Known about the structure:
The chain is an alpha+beta fold and about 400 residues long.
Amino acid sequence: MGGGIIGSAVARRLSLAEPRPDVTVVEKESVPARHQTSRNSGVVHAGVYYAPGSAKATLSREGVRRLRAYCRERGLPYEEVGKVVVALDEVEVQRLDAIEARARANGVPGLRRLDPAALREVEPHAVGRAALHSPTTAITDFSRVAAAMLEDAVEREAQVLTGFEVTGLDQAGGKVELRAADGRHLRADRVVIAGGLHADRLAVLAGDGPSPAIVPFRGEYHRLAPSATHLVRGLVYPVPDPRYPFLGVHLTRRVCGDVLLGPNAVLATAREGYRRRDVDLGVVRALATSSGFRRFARANLATGLHEVVGSVSRHAFVARARRYVPAITDADVVPASSGVRAQAMDPDGSLVEDFRFSSVGAVLCIRNAPSPAATASLAIADLVVERLDLD
Length: 391
């Protein structure tokens, strides 16, 4: 269930199994991969930030290796443009030390600590007191990667049913029956829920508990005008605040040649709330009545207000990027797209930091798969198929 990059990777992996099972992908949209898979920065994460031994760390490192090979095999874009994580003051330098220790523990290759002069050699227009350079951090187009994975599955006789919005799921007699909003039915022996922004709702249909619940955060982007793209060679990231789960506004070169600024992280009032005016009263009601979310909101009020200011003021948004690349002006920047991140939250209001999976009978639920899930997609697919126990 779900035709984004995780669902597509799982379908591809299942289609390669021997004996080959009958594989069907059900996707509620008319075209797969319309949401998180196609609305992101396109960064292939090398494993710099993640806690050693975590699923994010192990699966992203394996995922990078697999994704690089897959892109080369399929003729898909994959460019190792490199990333610098830039510290602006002594507090951030200390945080950078911790990030470097994690990255080295995770086996990220080629890491190099940079002083201001060395930073300018890598990114001539960037400034900072210190930086960590990850030369193998890459960029790709995840929507094209997902499409290729789905093509692989279809070539091996998988089916793709679009417009199949699952509204019911029953398990009985060792079978799973899916019901769609348009009246279609489908019976299966095993089901994998890779529902992204709707992962918790679908898991509840399968009989799993309501937690962790998905809280949608909108990430808004701006783009450098063509006359200013020379200001960024690769990827320029801030040192993230460990009290908050997002990386902060950064500068990202894309395979098409554009340079993105962002994303920020603003609470969305709809699961697919790509615009500020997108409001789903059901989502608003669920957030307002969640004691865990209220606890999270109180703890992060200042940060949330800071993000809102950047959302409504382009000048404030650009000012954050200008701290790292001072040559950028407001006139160099135009609004771009937005995405919504499916972030799982536990009942106590803490955000789930690692990937999370659960099983209910013959249904495997992917409950939390934010970044770097796209990077790790092929490795996640291996893990999912192993847990399905098809023998």
